[in-house]
Amino acid sequence: MTTDTPSAFDPPSMINLVGVGMTRDAARQVYEQAGIGPGDIQVCELHDCFAQNELITYEGLGLMKELPYERAMIAIGAAATMHRAYELTVEYVRERKVFGKPIVDFQNTRFTLAEIKATVLASRLFADYIVQKWIDGSLDSATAAMGKVWLTDRQCEVIDRCLQFFGGFGYMMEYPIARMYVDARVQRIYGGSNEIQKELVGRDL
Length: 205
Ligand SMILES: Cc1cc2nc3c(=O)[nH]c(=O)nc-3n(C[C@H](O)[C@H](O)[C@H](O)COP(=O)(O)OP(=O)(O)OC[C@H]3O[C@@H](n4cnc5c(N)ncnc54)[C@H](O)[C@@H]3O)c2cc1C
Known about the structure:
The chain is about 55% helix and about 5% strand. It is built from 7 helices and 4 strands; from the N terminus they run H-E-E-H-H-E-E-H-H-H-H.
């Protein structure tokens, strides 16, 4: 395991496993992930090894203290992506005509987009709150966990609703909304699943 020692302004660093104890058979098994671009996932078996404390932490900054920042990044990304999905959808429903009129002219479209717009704004404000806490050094584990759960749940919900307006085109990877849909799903899993985040918030009640 390796870490970089951060300066005062470095973002949180990642821990990299460098093939410790990986067997040849395990290394051959590569899984293709569903979204977020190409990336090999391999089963890595660790035998008879341990991590010395100084290798996964540095003085005064333990690994556990970094986790809220990873969750905050995921939460902020969720808010930004939702905003872009909303913009793309508004553009599309103005252009695409069905039954002789643009999709935006159907009341259902306007009502749904009104709800989405409110969700996107609320998400932006939550993300700004997290950013402010990050800047002033008061970002705590529960706030980051709440942000990760709430914003990534909203991200999946908003993108799913936006995609619906694209009809069949929304299911084609040529359209960015399809890529957003596929990529959003992992946001509720990585960085610690959303269920684990709720456990963390629950401990802080
Ligand atoms: C694309 C991708 C990139 C990743 N990148 C990294 C990385 O860079 N670094 C890294 O360290 N990890 C990374 N991960 C791993 C990721 O953090 C884990 O997948 C995630 O924390 C969930 O752990 P798990 O997959 O072992 O799920 P499990 O622990 O097997 O959990 C499966 C499901 O069980 C349920 N569950 C589990 N525990 C509880 C509980 N206590 N209460 C209620 N329900 C529960 C949840 O629904 C959970 O989603 C990545 C994963 C993916 C998919």
